[in-house]
Amino acid sequence: MSDVPAAGYNAHVRHGRIIGPIVNVIASIEAAEALKILSGHREAISRRLTIIDLWDNQVRAVDLARLARQHCDCRVCKHNEFAWLSGERGDTSAVLCGRNSVQLKRGKTGTTASLDEIATRLKGVGNVQRNSFLCGLTVDDYVLTVFPDGRTIVAAPMMSQSHVRCMHGMSVRDSS
User: Fold this and answer.
1) CATH number of the CATH domain containing 151
2) I need a surface site. Which of 70, 82, 136, 149 has the fewest CB within 10 A?
3) Looking at the domain assignment, is residue 147 inside a domain?
């Protein structure tokens, strides 16, 4: 993969294509793999990456060993760069006490968000306010504030961190 999508971006999630039963499918496969290890049959462990799309009823298996043998320039396989595991890529979130707000912060430092692009994208969604320090969006009880360093604060009554991440990914992240 020459470049990875923004943290939290997933086309299937954006279009509602991840459905609940996938949890049971993945849990069953992982349980079977764990039983192989626990019973002393490590040779039976799958050496493939299994990709399951329940929406389209497709299952694929990618032979990772073959990929590693090929002359690819993979950041992980060839260069041992683990940006997602190290936290260099990805986001962190924190609940702001007493404010019904969650702050999201990018893992990658030194990047900036284009407040103009974000304001343009959000213009038809709700009331957008923009100055040189932030871009704000208000829709009903939701308030989204984006800062040039990529930090985002989402304020709303009774909102989970996962809901905030999804909302952020669908509205802001693609342009930053």
Assistant:
1) 3.30.310.10
2) 70
3) yes
Residue 21 half-sphere exposure, CB side, CA atoms within 13 Å? Answer: 5
Averaged pLDDT, groups of 10, the chain, 176 residues long: 50 62 93 95 91 89 74 74 73 73 72 83 89 91 87 78 61 51
**Pair 62, 112 in one domain:** no
Instruction: Report d(CA 8, CA 11) in Å as an integer.
Output: 10
Q: Are 30 and 105 in the same domain?
A: no
Question: Is residue 166 located within the same domain as residue 108?
Answer: yes
Burial (CB < 10 A; 0-12, 13-18, 19+), residue 115, is: buried
Contact 78, 133 (CB under 8 A): no
Mean pLDDT of the residues in the chain: 78
Q: What is the DSSP string of 48-105?
A: EEEEEETTTTEEEEEEHHHHHHS----TTTTT---HHHHTSSSEEEEEETTTTEEEEE
Residue 5 DSSP one-character state:
P
